[in-house]
# Entry
Amino acid sequence: MNRLTTALLLTTLSVPAFAGKPLPGDSAPAFSINSLEGNTLELKQYRGKPVSLVFLDSLCPMPHWPDCEAQLTKLRKIAADDQENQWIGIVKGFYIDENWVKAFAKRWQLSFPLAWDRDNAVFSRYQVFGNPYQIWVDKDGRIASRNEVIRANSD
# Structure
């Protein structure tokens, strides 16, 4: 096998089965991740109630996340006022460690479970590249919406 063929084969084999971007109407990809408190968060445990997955970067303020302070303040208020739905924060793993994420959670007083996506596996499964980014999952485990702006559930 020549180098090009080998490289193409390895690239093809390394593309995960969930490479397609899950869209509204699709089943939400399963995940299991530890919260900052050490609890296991699995999407299936939230069945029966809508859940907001909020994808965050803890490096706020920063140039590629304009107005992040205002957006985090808005997120904190919306989630705290929402007694009907579940919220989970998934924090990007690049350039940080778990202590950094804990300081981020404390600074912004986020009241919902937060998980450090150490290897960005959940970000990859959901094909999320920007943040903040929100994915609403309905009570049946299907993606209801994908949003670049944090919002309350419209269901």
Summary: The chain has one domain: 21-147. The first strand starts at residue 32 and ends at 34. The chain is about 25% helix and 20% strand. The domain at 21-147 is CATH 3.40.30.10 (Glutaredoxin).
